[in-house]
Amino acid sequence: MGGALFALAVQAPADLTPWQIEAEHARGHNDQPLPTRQGADSAWIISDKAASDGRAVLLASNGGSVGQVLPGSFRPGVYTVGIRARGEAYQGWPTVELRLDGRRVGAVTVTNGEYALQTLANVSLRPGQRLDIVFVNDAYDGAQDRDRNAVLDQLALTPLQDAAPPAGRTPGDVLDVKSFGAKGDGVTDDSAVLARIGNAGGKDIYFPPGTYVIGRPVRLDGLKHQTIYGSNATLRASDDFQAGDALGMLTLTNAQDLTVRDLTIVGRARYDVAPFDQRADGLHVEDSRDVHVRGLNVQRTHSVGISADGSDGVVIEDSTVSGAYANGIGTGNSNNVKILRNTVTGLGDPGSGNYKEPPGLGIFGWGGKNFLAEGNVLRNITNTATKTEGIANTTYRGNTIDGFGKDGIKIMPRPGYSTSVAGAVVEGNTIRNRHPWAADGTSYILFHSVQGGRVAGNKIESTYRPGHFYEEDAVRVNTFSKGPPSRDIVIEGNEIVGTRRGVRLEADGTVFRGNTVRGQDPWARSGLIVSANGVSVANNTFDGPVIGVLLDSGVARTRVENNRFANNSGSGVYADNDNSDTTVGGNSFGVGVAQRVVGRVNGCRSNEC
Fold first, then answer.
1. S-S: 362 plus which of 50, 133, 378, 564, CB 3.0-4.6 Å?
2. What is the DSSP track for 108-134?
3. 201 DSSP assignment
4. What pLDDT score was predicted for residue 111?
5. Residue 557 falls in which region: left (phi positive, over 0), alpha (psi -120 to 50) or beta
């Protein structure tokens, strides 16, 4: 469908003035201008004297859209999102949806023939997120006067409110850091003043608008039942920032029931120094409990953007991390961690910069138990997009990964600490656009020595480009180093499109059911490679790979039943590698299957394989 990105017409207002973003400033696919020729796409620019600048965007068919990726300078907060639009009715008025990172968060039916402001939703926004206005109920009957359209003039983002003290607190319960002596003038080093705050005497800590220069880490210890928050406030590392014993520009230790929200932290990455040789995170939480981080915008840190070590009950949500040299978000030896609805943008191709070491991961957790990453967006990650090491009960749910250089989602033991990991769930994620930036990358989803796990409802899309032949599996389940083999794994309901190999199973007793694997010869080689015993393959679709299901040498007791095969230029099932006790039955073989079954199998007679 035709889509475009708004271009911001103004800088972020210092007050509550709305942003006015002109729709016709949009750009289309591959950063090309939105077309002006009628019918060139599902959305195009039109001349309209009634529009604010004499031009508007016509959303002409379902999926026609305009959008905006919020830049790094965007101030996080809660905004009312509205549009200045008019409708062209036919058998009803047009409806448009507001989508935030692809998720529907609001809608409005445009019931006016002249331009008017329409409110879509109140939404928490932060840099790096994408807003789309999408036409969803087109109607057309072959004539110009029988055509339902939406015409969009402007997108308006209105801040709902400036920062306020937490509920139940009065101004007397709040320590204003400027009243305490911080300048926030973008010049003066405020780190010594901020470090003297200590536990603020139990008061909440407020950063008024300003830029607070940090020359060395600021440690605040023992905060309990408090909130640290800001209003258009930035903590920025000085040009001569010196790392210290505290690991973050803002380091919080021994905290309990603490909220940190609505701050921008800008680090100073030195690419000539390895990121962990001189540790300098943005926000670091240590030896703490029930810390809630929300609405942070962390940029260009030398090490990790937001980190937590030795803590319990940390929640990191609705924040943005961009350009971290090591990892975007990281946790170590922590329990009951939740990482929710964040956007992490990495440094991309390591060949594009002069790095002492290649940049790192998007989200990384090691040690502890109970780790949830849900609703996050990870883009342009140089290394693995996200992984956990040695964390029992890890869940990845509803994340979007778009651009990574090694593996997409990886769950594994912690080298030197454990040999296996239990309880892994990867469900409802979208993973696409793998690059060959790391020579040892293998998979979009990878389980190493996982004892009990499920991979369900994910969508995996390869972005193969001619000439870029590198190995990859959509899903791979195997054994890590000297650990035990993975076991008790269910893989179901996934959609896999265009990967070099679909799924590689090296875990006995795996259940593989209800999946769709599509590809195209010669790039897509195998839909499923079975390298373990007792695997059940049922009710799947294998359309396009050279071989639908390939059994490795010596694999036994495989059941391949009730699957659909099509366009397999090699064979539907290849079981000619000393594969004893293989059962094949109830499958259907459509067009383009050169050989249905190769090898001696049980239950397959004539056309009943």
1. 378
2. EE---SS-EEEEEEEEEE-TT-EEEEE
3. G
4. 85
5. left
Cis peptide before 415 (omega within 30 of 0): no
Strand partners, 119: 82
Report CA-CA distances (Å) from 509 to 477, 492, 506, 538, 550: 12, 14, 9, 13, 16
- Which bin fits 40, alpha (ψ -120 to 50), beta or left (φ > 0)? alpha
DSSP-derived letter for residue 335 is B
Determine the straight-line distance between the first and last CA of the chain, rounded to whole angstroms: 40
What integer pLDDT is reported at residue 262 of this predicted model?
Answer: 92
Buried b (16+ CB within 10 A) or exposed e, 374-395: bbbbbbbbbbbbbbbbbbbbbb
> Cα 105–106–109 angle (5° rounding)?
160
Which tokens is 128 given?
A: 């790096």
Residue owning tokens 């003043």: 193
Question: What residues have CB less than 8 Å from 5, skipping those under 6 apart?
Answer: 26, 27, 28, 31, 66, 67, 68, 69
- pLDDT interval class at 171 (50, 70, 90): low
- Local structure of residue 166 (DSSP, 8 states): P
Please give the structure tokens belonging to residue 557: 């007791």
Cβ(20)–Cβ(11) under 8 Å? Answer: no
Contacts of 150 (CB under 8 A, 6+ apart): 58, 59, 64, 85, 86, 87, 88, 94, 95, 96, 110, 135
Q: Which two tokens stand for residue 302?
A: 């030398």
Distance (Å, whole) CA 152 – CA 431: 31
Structure tokens at 370: 């109970």
Percent of the chain with pLDDT over 70: 92
- Read off the pTM: 0.79
Give strand pairing partners of 339: 316, 373
Q: How many CA atoms lie within 13 A of 55 on its CB side?
A: 13
> Encoding tokens for residue 126?
């932060």
37 to 27, 51, 498, 530: CA distances (angstroms):
14, 18, 33, 52
Section 260-280 average pLDDT: 94
Backbone phi, psi, residue 552, to 5° = -70, 170
Judged by DSSP in three states, 425 sits in: strand
